[in-house]
Design goal:
heterodimer; A: alpha+beta; outer membrane lipoprotein receptor (LolB), chain A; eleven-stranded antiparallel beta sheet; 11 strands; B: 742 residues; alpha+beta; four-stranded antiparallel beta sheet; 27 helices; 64% helix
Chain lengths: 185, 742
Amino acid sequence: MTLAKRLVPLLSLLVSAPALAELPCPAPEALSPITEAQSFTQTRILSGVDRPLVSRGSVLVTPEAVEWTVTDPVEVKTRMAEDGIFQSVMGGPEEPVQAGGAANPIVSDSGLIALLRGDFTAVDTYYDTEKSALQDGDWQVQMAPKSDSMSAYVTDITVTGCQAIETIRLRQTNGDEMHVTFGTE
Amino acid sequence: MGQRARAGLLFALWLALAGTIVAIRLSTGAGFDTNIRSILPSERLSPGAQAAVSELTGSFADRVAFLVRAEDPGAAEDARTDLNERLTASGLFVDDQATGEDTARWIFANRNELLCEERPEDFTDETARRVWQQALGRVYGVGTPVSGDLLRADPFLLTFRLADCLSARVGGANTPSLLSGRLTEPASSLATQDRLSVLIAEWQAEWREENVELARMGTVFHAAHAAGSARGEISRVSGLGLFGVIALFLFAFRRPSAILLVAALIGASFLTGLAVTLLLFSEVHLLVLVFAAMLVGIVSDYAVHALAARASHGWPDAKASRALIFRPLTVSMLTTMAGFAGLWLLGLSLFAQLAVFAIAGIFAAWALVLYVLVPLDLAPRASAMAKQDWSERVDAMARYVPDRRLLLFACAALLLATLLGVLRATTLDDVRQFQPRDAGLMAEEETVLDALGAGNGQLYLVSEGDSLDAAKLAEEDAIGLLGRDRIAGLAYTKFDPSAERRQVTRDVLQTRLESPYIAEAQEQFGLERDIEISISRPARPAWLDDLHVEAANGQHYLIAQLRTEPGTSIFFSSPDAQIVDVAQTYSDAFAAYRRLAGWALGLANLVAIFVVSLIYRTLRAALIVACPAAAMLGGIFIPSLLGVPISFFSMAGAMVLFGVGIDYAAFFYEARGKRENWTLAAVLISALTTELSMGLLCYSETFPVRSFGLTVAVGVLCALTYAMLVFGQFRSGEQASDAGNM
């Protein structure tokens, strides 16, 4: 399975329809992706760096690709598709992301794209998952990577949500963390 | 102790002595030189450079790449992983990506002294701006593995940029279904080829149901295919030849023991030649062993002559038997040995080795036939009846011998054909045409190359200097002239530049990137100002060391594979760097050896004429050498009429003709005036044996084998025909049994 296929289903889950918000939380596997753009806030907490690096933007999931667009503090458009990952910075030309992306197991072996597409079935391929219910009724899925190549970089990924994925927290083995919160803006 | 026991003991001691010498020499550093260019008299490269290029190109020859494809990309990835695990577990293969971490550490440690750009001046202000933007994109974009430690040490994320542009081809990092690496055993080894073939066949069987396809690239696969074809072909041809020789010996001598004796003597003579050569030389060149094929013909000539003489005289005792054959065998031995000894005068190690090998081997053949074969050749139980049978067979053979007129016609035809062959002769030394590569493998190779984005070819840039840094400067200058696009894969200085280039790069990065953007980066990412991060310089990645060699003379050489476009040439001139076309250097070597072998044969013939003139004190005896000389010309040139070009392997075949041709002529010359016809029978059997054992190789589909076989096949016919006519071995009137008397 290509890295794009692996990451995209998760994103779809992240952006499930707000219209379903009043209904009881369905099981994560029952979420269906939607195609409307969804805003997010990404926070990177890097060890040894004084302050978190916060970026904001929107994500759009289509059958062909996941488009992850950061608008603040700089404009960065990242397109994850069947043919690879491409990035355009500050209106510049779209360029393939190589060693910093596709060859990076955090992307290629993580199942993040599958997660983005809401495909928890694919997620099971890459992670040992543990599902639980939170006090407010939301669900939480904690995922520990199965592969050695992935576990060398990633300690675990925690996804929470109800009608849609609301947060993703990725903890790396070097102590760095990345938090993504959806629908906050 | 009886004669037979003494002969058996002598043979055992002989074998033990020769075998011990070979074993001791091989275990104390002597060996075989398989590099056909290593002892060339004149090369553009110095001996040190030749050795360096051989070593460096050898490391390229040991590289392999696989592309695993399937309709289901997941299946392709799983199959690739399985293939990698099997290859790695076999110990035969090291995955390039296994050194990926070393490469990443190296790039990180050297990030401020490396550039993606070909020249430092190509790193412009605009480039610097884009680098800064890319760093922002990586930090704020999704999925980029930016760590805090990395960002503090490398705020412009030059490591990622360099990894993208420099190491994209290290292990096919961006093509998940591509697997590349190097073999831990030489690709030229048959054992390596066999193990790899079996492993891949098992893997293919496992994944066949998933419709997984494999494309392979590597010298080892072509070598395995060629070896498989050659083995199959040689088994068929040799099997047919062996069957023919056995049938011939059974027909002639009616005793299987004769076959075993001759085979044992061939082996012993070969072992003796090798032992003596190893005593005098630290290495025996592989081509000496190729030329040494002539021993097969000579030993079988001597042995058949002895067997025929004994049969014709009712298997007399050993002393009487030796008396029958001592003179013809000795004349033949001395003449042939003298001819080969003349090769020493060429002053080339290869031919000096061949001279020693041939002299020792021929002497062994002579001694072993006289003092081992003769006593060990058992007389049949009913020897009188056996002798009668033998005589009838000899008479039968004599009846089919052509008369003088027919021989004259045949000789004229062969001489004319030789002359026409001279006029139409062409040569072939291009190793690329010796054996066309398998089309299927070539197609697979193209597929892998497409995926790698690399070029193929046997063209290398070799840069040298009296220090590593001087060699680096030479390579940087050469790449500057050629353009980095010409580099098909990796180049040493892309990853480890010269001190001078490092300094320039540091200055450029400082001026165009650090100074304008560092404050902004620190502010944007929240980094401390003026932090000091100490980085220990990691070891150079192993694959990078494979591109460098220090020769015994202290010179340093760097190699980079060049991209070649069909139909284009690269014009390049540099005092410290040159383009080496490996295939062309091999072709040049074969051409040089072809010419040298021609001179060697001419010299051998001159020396042989001098020796026979000394022995017989008459110029007529020079015909003993003239006949094989004409036969050699026939063997070399007549195939040209069939469109077969002359090659080095024609010369190897001619070397066989020199040996056996002298035997035929000397035996006939010695038989003159004697009322016997067994010499003719013996020579006919010998000639047929040579045709069956070596001449049949003319049916090979592999050019070198076919060229050798055709030369021998045609040349033996010429040698026999010329010698029969010149020495009167033809049917005269109805008295076939009188043929041969002169």
